[in-house]
Amino acid sequence: MSTTRQHPPGDLGREPQGAGVDAGAGTASPEPAERQWRTLSLRDASGIVPTARDFARQALHAWGWLPASSADGRAAAEDVLLVVSELVTNACLHAEGPEEIRIACTAKVLRVEVVDSGAGQPAPRTPHRAGRPGGHGMFIVQRLCLDWGVLRVPGRPGKTVWAELAAPA
């Protein structure tokens, strides 16, 4: 796990200016087939976690992950939805709420990014104790993802917490 690498193994990097989804229209702008972005502002949203999960589920349908044709495909889609829930919940609990969620997809990797204004550094609770209530979010993210980390822009408050999951085979 890396929490400082600027470009992780999937090398999707940050979303290009003007790319993604117009939050009001709900449709993606044209992107090269190898990288498709969807973006949703969560600044004034109510029911933030279900809204983010619904947004992710719609992206998974658009990209052919859902409906899944196999148990492995269903498990991969459920993993994405769980990671979205954990990252958004973490931003709600520890960073004054998420500002935006971005999801990108290539043939091999799906990347989830949650932007917040918090100064904290997310980390799995160590040592992890399965029977203890709470504190499992980043441990779950670490276990389900190929990699995850935090991006910060010098001189700007907040951060982007990202996680990458393998596409179903």
Order of helices and strands: EHHEEHEE
Distance between the termini: 23 Å
Structural class: alpha+beta
Q: Strand portion, in percent?
A: 15-25%
Structure report:
This protein is α+β, with helices and mostly antiparallel strands. The protein has helices at 48-62, 71-94, 137-144, and strands at residues 36-41, 98-105, 109-116, 147-151, 159-166. The chain has a five-stranded antiparallel β-sheet with strand order 1-2-3-5-4, with helices on one face. Strand 2 and strand 3 form a beta hairpin. The longest helix has 24 residues, at 71-94. It is globular, with a radius of gyration of 15 Å. The protein starts with 35 loop residues before the first strand and ends with a strand.
